[in-house]
Amino acid sequence: MSFFDHLVDLRKRLINSIMAIGVGVVVGFALSEKLVGYIVEPMRQALRSAHLMDKLIYTSPAGYLNLLITFGVYMGVVLAMPVVLYQIWLFVAPGLYKHERRAITGFILSSTILFLLGISFGYFIMLPYILKFLVSFHGPVEPLISINEYFDLILIILLGLGLIFETPILIFFLSIFGIVTPKFLLKNFRYAMLIITVVAAIVTPTPDATTMLIFMTPMVVLYFAGILVSHLVLRRKKAQALAGEAH
Predict the structure, then answer these.
(1) Which of 28, 38, 122, 167 has a 20 to 30 Å separation from 229 between CA atoms?
(2) Is 146 helix (H, G, I), strand (E, B) or coil?
(3) 225: how many CB neighbours lie within 10 A of its CB?
């Protein structure tokens, strides 16, 4: 494909992705009011565990409506993710070998599963711990939690972890194009740890080291999972090269 053909193809993939997100936003907004209850439950549990009133508030007339719209938009992005990933794959696929293009199902499935695992890890493990820690410092005053500010907090945590869990997929692509190798990743592990520590320090909403370590643990595990993925990709490429020489 020429450079112009690549631009035309990129435009097509972007339009398809935007349309998928648009449909997802409509569906997400329709479901948002029912799903808000699940979103606020970790906060309510943290408040109950601290023997406080387990209700959240909004501080402007349009506060709750804005929450539903915002939540619908993000839900739409999550729902459209498989389609968006498929469009990314179609854009990249012309530069891959036939046997690599056959991996499309595994790519979309693994990307979606890893993203959902990241969100689940944040919702079921990170949020309860973080919220209990934050609420424990209420002192002699009773907190009134704004649902909009609470949503901003969990958005950083859940989507951030969802993207972090995509690390093996990123390494998979970098390995296919020869940008990274298992040896390179192992050799530069200390720099990766520095980046992981900085990211965990920025994303972690609490100042305690325990929460930061909980954030860092899956990131380190995913990095080593990425090294394994890179090793498998490199081994397969070598096997294909040897098979081509044999023929």
Answers:
(1) 122
(2) strand
(3) 16
- SS3 state at 132: helix
Burial code (b: 16+ CB inside 10 Å, e: under 16) for 103-139 equals eeeebbebbeebbebbbebbbeebbbbbbebbbeeee
Query: What's the pLDDT tens digit per position in 74-87?
Result: 899 889 988 888 88
The secondary structure of residue 52, as a DSSP letter, is S
Average pLDDT over residues 94-108: 66
Cα angle value 46/51/54 (rounded, 5°): 55
Instruction: Say how far apart CA 132 and CA 49 lie, in whole Å.
Output: 8
pTM for this structure? 0.80
CB atoms within 10 A of CB 47: 22
Helix H segments across the chain? Answer: 3-49, 63-92, 98-101, 104-121, 127-135, 147-164, 167-176, 182-187, 189-203, 209-246
Tokens of 117: 């695992």
Span 93-107, average pLDDT: 66
d(CA 153, CA 126): 12
SS (H, E, C) 198-236: HHHHHHCCCCCHHHHHHHHHHHHHHHHHHHHHHHHHHHH
Coil/strand/helix, residue 56: strand
Contacts of 71 (CB under 8 A, 6+ apart): 28, 29, 32, 35, 36, 39, 151
Which position has the token pair 């325990």? 210
